[in-house]
């Protein structure tokens, strides 16, 4: 039997992809979402002009706008968002006690709790993540990594540099993206390199599912602690990502906000 030519292989792949999209569309209209399809459906939320996203323990969605404003969803589906009094916020995270943490455009770290913003002692920061035990993890603008056990009042520097993004898994493992696009994890007091690259942002869901955004705007996931990653094929054009109890959320390069709520993994 004669093998397929390169052109035939491409045509077959495109036909398969088109058939798959038509199937997903029909299932969406019918209201039927088998597990094999649910994990790959991304829907646009009612927000635009955004920069970063975080998911609170109660499933509510927090956003920072491209001009530093902060927004909060009315439910876990992001049906609508209300603006919170704030300005100059860039990166955002939410702790286990629902305290909101914001790295300002000037690098200062702020908290938002009980309707009030409070400044911390941290300065010249780039990104923030909060562990399940309340430990604050930070990446500075110079790429160094810091932690705080007293809500940002005192900071301890760890080994490692060149980092740009940080996230913390429920088991306490810290994940970080280097400025060169490589992925690393911090376990037993040392940084370990993960065999993937070309990354811009990383997030870890409460169940341990690891998600990252590639420099090409694609989204990848790992359910085995980062040993292997699989691509969300229909997802592209993204720059930042978050993960919570209800699913994954991502901000597009164009500032649009997208949700993936159908995955049985969450």
Percent strand: 35-45%
Q: Under CATH, the topology of the largest domain is which?
A: Neuraminidase
Number of E-type strands: 24
Overall spatial form? globular
Report mean pLDDT, rounded to a whole number. Answer: 87
Describe this structure in words.
With 266 residues, the chain is mainly beta. It folds into two domains: 1-32; 35-260, Neuraminidase (6 Propeller), CATH 2.120.10. 11% of the residues lie in helices and 43% in strands. It is built from two helices and 24 strands. The strands form six sheets. A four-stranded antiparallel β-sheet has the order 1-24-23-22, with no helix packed on it. It starts with 5 loop residues before the first helix and ends in a 6-residue tail after the last strand. Mean pLDDT is 87; it is low at 1-39 and 262-266.
Key words describing this protein structure:
11% helix, 2 domains, disordered C terminus, disordered N terminus, 2 helices, 24 strands, 4-stranded antiparallel sheet, mainly beta, 266 residues, Neuraminidase
Can you describe this structure in just a few lines?
With 266 residues, the chain is mainly beta.
How do the strands and helices of this protein lay out in sequence?
Elements: H1 6-30, H2 35-38, E1 43-44, E2 50-55, E3 61-65, E4 70-73, E5 81-84, E6 89-94, E7 100-104, E8 109-113, E9 116-119, E10 125-130, E11 136-140, E12 145-148, E13 156-158, E14 163-168, E15 174-178, E16 183-187, E17 190-194, E18 199-204, E19 210-214, E20 219-222, E21 230-231, E22 238-244, E23 247-252, E24 257-260
Antiparallel strand pairs: 1-24, 2-3, 3-4, 4-5, 6-7, 7-8, 8-9, 10-11, 11-12, 12-13, 14-15, 15-16, 16-17, 18-19, 19-20, 20-21, 22-23, 23-24
